[in-house]
Amino acid sequence: MKVTVCQFPDDLQLIEPTWQRLITHVKEMGSELVVLGEMPFYPWPAGSDTYDDQVWEAAIQAQHAMESRFHELGDVVLASSRPVVIEGVNRHEAFVWDKTSGIQAVHHKYYLPEEPDFWEATWYGRGDKSFEPIQTRVG
Question: Does domain 3-123 have CATH number 3.60.110.10?
């Protein structure tokens, strides 16, 4: 199995060129699994110790915009995380995507640091500590 791991920059102007380089790399290397960092498509919101609804919503919108483009990577499985709101509660959701099944939620982050640059408990609620396997396909 060929795996590509990519960390996106926090600079919003660099998201698109990074995405284009990722597409090229994945196709050239024949990657089957692509792993991205946490909430990769918007500057890390939990770096601030002050919660802001507008920042959280902007992070969700940036994520949605990129989700509609995952197919550009081809026949891969993509693993990452995203900001979501579930039943009125902000969550940090790990997911996998493939072109057949679409996005499948894996779990919601349970361990939430509350320290400089990682004010996670300020930004989203704790998940239920479940880590259930899911079925996906590679290649």
Answer: yes
